[in-house]
Amino acid sequence: MFKKSLLLIVALLTIGGGTIAAAPVVPAEAATHHLIKWHGKKYRSKYTVKQMRRKFHLKYYKTKDIAHVTWVHNLYTGISKGANVHTGAGSETHAHGAVTHKGRYAMFMTDQLDGGNAYSLEYINLKTGKHYHDQA
Predict the structure, then answer these.
(1) Is 109 exposed, middle or buried (CB count within 10 Å of its CB: 0-12, 13-18, 19+)?
(2) CA-to-CA distance for 119 and 131, rounded, in angstroms?
(3) Nearest to 83, CA basis, from 116, 127, 113, 47
(4) Contact 75/60 with Cβ under 8 angstroms?
(5) Neighbouring-strand partners of residue 73
(6) What's the pLDDT tens digit per position in 3-62?
(7) Residue 58 near residue 47, CB atoms below 8 Å
(8) Distance (Å, rounded) from C-alpha 88 to C-alpha 109?
(9) Are β-strands 41-45 and 61-64 bridged in parallel, bridged antiparallel, or unpaired?
(10) How far apart are CA 118 and CA 136, in angstroms?
(11) pLDDT for 7
């Protein structure tokens, strides 16, 4: 079938003398942005929540430690405006870090279910996809 089509095109070109303009083959592109819905609003993001989990190894799971405290790991807690990240500076408190990054971020939290105030946060910038880890 391909040979017949090729012969037909060559014959038309030699007889008619015209040119056939073939459209360039353009591969399908991946989506340049995605939408994440949170509390009735839609936010544009470079990655979906599922893609963020894969890219930054943020699998959701639960564990119990020696004291029988239940930990929830990498719970998606929503969209945050600004990422308040602890750097270890002396001026920091448990609640507030030293650096606040601007923009909107997807937050993933590791926390104790049975009490306590130890937690860690993973921030992923919706626009750039940059990842920040915060240990409080």
Answers:
(1) middle
(2) 17
(3) 127
(4) yes
(5) 61
(6) 665 555 656 566 655 555 555 665 555 567 899 999 999 999 999 999 999 999 999 999
(7) no
(8) 19
(9) unpaired
(10) 7
(11) 55
* CA contacts within 13 A on the Cβ side of 128: 9
In eight-state DSSP terms, residue 21 is -
Closest of 115, 40, 112, 32 to residue 79, by C-alpha: 40
Distances (CA, A) of 86 to 52, 97, 120: 21, 4, 10
Block residue for tokens 């090729």: 6
Instruction: Name the residue among 71, 126, 130 with its Cα closest to residue 103.
Output: 126
- What value does the mean pLDDT take over residues 68-76? 90
| Structure tokens belonging to residue 96 | 């507030």
